Amino acid sequence: xKCPNCQANxxxxxxxxxxxxxxxxxGERRPxxxxxxxxxxxxxxxxxxxxxAALVFALLHQRGGPPVVQGAPAPxxxxxxxxxxTQPSASRPITxxxxxxxxxxxxxxxxxxxxPEVVQYIEFVKRVEAKRKEMRIDFTPAMEMLKAAYxxxxxxxxxxxxxxxxPKVAGGYNKYVQEWNQLxxxxxxxxxxxxxxxFAGAYRQALGSYVTAMxxxxxxxxxxxxxxxxxxxxxxxxxxxxxxxxxxxxxxxxTKRYHLEKTFTVSADAEVDTILGx
Length: 278
What we know:
Elements (H helix, E strand, L loop, with lengths): L25 H4 L8 H26 L52 H20 L4 H15 L4 H30 L8 H27 L2 H32 L21
Helix pairs in contact: 3-5, 4-5, 4-6, 5-6, 6-7
């Protein structure tokens, strides 16, 4: 520093000027211009570091990630350690992800929709079957013709009865057979929809077999063939009953397929007395 009196160079720690001997005070020994600048620079650096750290913390907080602590140990590599299920805290509500899924229950197969034409056809066959059951026990003309055939064969009729009775009974039997033919023709007027074809085929075969048997009976009566009549009475009816039962089985499968009520039965003729007998 300079001596304020003689301008001689004086050590900054000296109390007296070595040149003029003037007493130097503290203010003259430490001029403001000679103050060290290093502490100010260091303070500015520290302030800048703090500001930068604040900005980094704010950015990490906005992104949702925790601040990275310098020198913290890295997480261990390798498969995660399996732990038991985490129990939900009582201080927070249970989220949907924490609710265990309900056990899966076996589901029933979807019900097949009933085509309206199937319902209509079943009702149609129900009316035909009701008519058949009425006609199967109305065989008085056939029984009269059978008696006449037996009487003529055994010689139990007189000459007048032989001339008048068989033709009269034959006419009644022809009418009876024609009614059965008309019933079959009525059944054939309605075409069965695809799901009903097996049922319709079995039922049509039973009706046709019944008419065929009555036609054979008629021919045997006209010819007086008692042996053929007796043979048919023992064998034909069981065959037709088998066809009727098959038709009823097909009807049961059809109604079960569409979950319909089975409102009628295609019953066999074994339980009633018919023209074919037992």
